[in-house]
Design brief:
The complex is a heterodimer of chains A (474) and B (109).
Chain A: E1 2-5, E2 8-11, H1 12-35, H2 41-62, E3 64-65, E4 70-71, H3 74-97, H4 103-126, H5 134-158, H6 168-190, H7 195-217, H8 225-246, H9 250-273, H10 278-283, H11 305-313, E5 317-322, H12 324-328, H13 332-344, E6 348-353, H14 363-370, E7 378-380, H15 381-384, E8 393-397, H16 406-409, E9 428-433, E10 453-457, H17 460-473
Parallel strand pairs in A: 5-6, 5-8, 6-7, 8-9, 9-10
Antiparallel strand pairs in A: 1-2, 3-4
Helix pairs in contact in A: 1-2, 1-9, 4-5, 4-8, 5-7, 5-8, 6-7, 8-9, 11-17, 13-17
Chain B: H1 2-10, H2 12-29, H3 37-47, H4 52-60, H5 72-106
Classes of the chains: A alpha/beta (474), B mainly alpha (109).
Chain lengths: 474, 109
């Protein structure tokens, strides 16, 4: 049956198709809304997945296009099904098999593949003479490529395959690369070049964007990683939305923008947790300094395993502050074992989670959930800080800058103004560290020199396992 | 300049929607507890795999009878890759998010 609206002939299928896109977009919104509350989160994920499935199925069977304006032909359908089948099997296998501790890498990897898909779609569509929206196509190509290569570098870093490279001049080179990307977009867009020249320049844009993605993530690392990961996530969403414009597809536009906005919030939240602006993180203005207050560096005092065991066992309130060191040492299970033991002895144990602890937003929560720590036991920074003066012992495991009191009282410190977990207000502090190395921000942490602080040097997992043994023997 | 103005004019509805969507996005996601930062990020990441629709359209309407003409073959291959990467993003993203959330809810007992 055909209907005519505004002189456009529509088949019923077209109307159903458009309606399914609207429905899919609504599913995405509801899904993300539910995802932002602990009790409904899992349902929310299913809603979003349902929306995606709906949009895919209706596109496959109802989308009309090509020279004869027909629905997809059987041979093409077969190719589509094979590609989707392979992608699904590979995706599901990786997602099922991977260790929970490799989650930051995995999120980056999936993000990279989304960026690559956007870039490829834009690249193909640019040579399509029917495509009238060159600007969004170019933007989709550039943003998708940056998200792809940037996420691959982030993946390499999180997996420990790529080291941070930071030199001051890289900042300027980055600006240059970014300028080149923007220049190419403007140049292709607004100078009436012949089609063949444009085609060549599009490949130059692709190459330039890929290079910029690499060079932009390269110098950023450590505690800034959560910001970068959520920023890249946001970029992939925007790239998908740009591609959505090419097809005037509401589900793609809405879904993409929605993800872009969500990623942006998370990015800014992470920046706020470090009291730094986004620009500051991207340009990478971290560096030494922080010698403003002339404090006695003093000497650190070590604690023996048996003393630590006694101190912990006879406390009534213990707070554990986990950091990236816990993840590196894979010490989450040993940590939980110690917590269980202490709880059996009647000690109240809580975890204090700093928003930027670890290498991605929420990293510590995932890590500890994997070790079966109930999430009610994980307390956010703002909620635990008032409790600090009543805490008998704070155990800092592999965290550094997030407990540095210089953030509160040393205006010359690079991290001044960053909200921290106020461990220095607790009665006793035990710091587990591999050595006296400085944190990511490369600044001295005066918490370590305080009278109430005792250091327990060594690999966090070994230390915790030995500590468990000591506590058992008490 | 004309191209920009033309773009704005011909996409005015979409731009309206985008402006509102951004606000909706900010409204919906604000105040997320940090427990959910990672699942939210990977769930959102899976949604950005909506680009898969573009892949379906590209491969679906690739001209299989005239593969040797112009860049048809190259486009088909790139399109298949786009579809593969998009699916990887969508399926992998949703599955891993579910796995993470399952892990969270299991602890509630």
């Amino acid at each position: 049956m055909e209907t005519t609206i505004n002189n456009i002939e529509l088949l019923n299928g077209d109307i159903i198709l458009e309606f399914s896109y609207l429905l899919a977009a609504i599913f995405f919104v509801v899904g993300l809304k539910l995802l932002s509350h602990p009790h409904t989160a899992r349902k929310g994920n299913l809603w979003a997945a349902g929306g995606m499935l709906l949009a895919m199925i209706t596109t496959i069977f109802l989308y009309r296009g090509g020279a004869d304006n027909s629905t997809i032909k059987p041979v093409n359908l077969l190719i589509i099904f094979i590609a989707i089948a392979i992608g699904s099997v590979v995706g599901a296998l990786i997602a099922r098999r991977i260790k929970m501790t490799a989650m930051p890498q995995l999120v980056s990897l999936f993000n990279a593949s989304g960026g690559a898909a956007s870039a490829l779609v834009a690249l193909i569509e640019f040579s399509n003479p029917d495509n009238s929206s060159a600007l969004v196509t170019l933007l989709g190509l550039a943003i998708g490529s940056i998200a792809f290569s940037g996420s691959m570098i982030a993946f390499g870093k999180l997996d420990g395959k790529i080291k941070d490279i930071f030199t001051k001049w890289l900042t300027y080179i980055n600006l240059l690369f970014l300028a080149a990307v923007i220049f190419l977009v403007v140049f292709i867009m607004f100078t009436g070049l012949p089609v063949e020249t444009k085609q060549i320049l599009v490949y130059a844009l692709l190459a330039m964007s890929l290079i910029y993605g690499v060079s932009f993530v390269m110098p950023i690392g450590g505690a800034d990683m959560p910001v970068v990961i959520s920023l890249l996530n946001s970029l992939t969403g925007i790239a998908a939305a740009m591609a959505g414009f090419i097809y005037q597809n509401q589900a793609m536009i809405l879904g993409g923008i929605f993800v872009g906005a969500a990623g942006m919030i998370l990015t800014l939240l992470m920046c706020k947790a470090m009291n730094r602006s986004l620009i500051n993180v991207i340009i990478g203005a971290f560096g030494g300094g922080g010698a403003g207050i002339d404090r006695e560096a003093g000497v650190v005092k070590e604690i023996s395993l048996s003393d630590a065991a006694v101190l912990l066992s006879y406390s009534s309130k213990v707070v554990i502050v986990p950091g990236y060191g816990l993840a590196v040492a894979q010490a989450q299970h040993a940590c939980n074992e110690m917590v269980k033991l202490l709880e059996d002895k009647g000690v109240e144990v809580k975890f204090a989670i700093h928003p930027v602890a670890g290498r991605m937003p929420g990293h510590m929560n995932v890590l500890l959930a994997e070790a079966d720590v109930p999430y009610e036991q994980l307390i956010e920074m703002d909620d635990i800080n008032p409790d600090m003066p009543n805490t008998d012992v704070v155990v800092v495991i592999g965290a550094n800058d997030v407990v540095n009191p210089a953030a509160l009282d040393d205006p010359s410190s690079p991290i001044y103004g960053m909200p921290i977990i106020k461990t220095h207000e607790a009665k006793n502090v035990i710091v587990m560290k591999r050595g006296m190395g400085k944190g990511y921000a490369a600044i001295e942490n005066f918490l370590f020199f305080e009278d109430k602080t005792r250091m327990l040097f060594g690999n966090a997992k070994d230390s915790l396992q030995k500590l468990v043994g000591e506590i058992k023997n008490l | 300049m004309d191209a920009i103005l033309e773009f704005f004019y011909s996409n005015k509805e979409a731009i309206f929607i985008i402006a509102l969507t951004i606000f909706l996005g900010l409204e919906v996601i604000s105040n997320v507890p940090s427990v959910l930062h990672t699942p939210l990020m990977s769930g959102a990441n899976a949604i950005s795999g909506v680009i898969i629709i573009g892949g379906i359209i590209l491969v679906g309407h690739a001209d299989l009878e005239n593969l040797k003409e112009g860049s048809n073959l190259l486009n088909l291959i790139l399109g298949i890759f786009a579809l593969f990467f998009g699916t990887l993003n969508v399926v992998g993203g949703f599955v891993v998010t579910d796995r993470m959330l399952e892990m969270f809810s299991k602890k509630k007992r």
